[in-house]
Amino acid sequence: RKGQSFSIRLGIERSTADQAMLCVADQPYLRLHTFKKLLELADGEHIICVTCQGILRNPAIFPRKYYKELLALADEQGGKQILK
Q1: Rounded to an integer, what distance in angstroms lies between the CA atom of residue 10 and that of residue 18?
Q2: Do residues 48 and 42 touch, judged by C-beta distance below 8 A?
Q3: Strand partners, 49
Q4: CB neighbours of 16 closer than 8 A, spacing ≥ 6?
Q5: Where is 57: in which H helix or E strand?
Q6: What is the 3-state secondary structure (H, E, C) of 29-44?
Q7: Mean pLDDT confidence for 42-47
Q8: What is the mean pLDDT of residues 56-67?
Q9: Before 63, cis peptide (omega within 30)?
Q10: Share of the chain above pLDDT 90, in %
């Protein structure tokens, strides 16, 4: 009801981690291998995300330096606003 940005802000506000992985729940075909590869590529400096046919997708890993931008999201905005 409060938009996806509310969920993102809630998680980021409470995070003590150096990076945050944003995921959506409705991706039944996403494989464990994909998560493992994302974590392997995460370097704490760059945003790492899945692409499908050249389109940026979830899940995505955001380093702490992007937390301020994630906290500024509003309504139905998601991490894609920052990815772009």
Answers
A1: 16
A2: yes
A3: 60
A4: none
A5: strand 55-63
A6: CCCHHHHHHHHHHCCC
A7: 96
A8: 95
A9: no
A10: 71
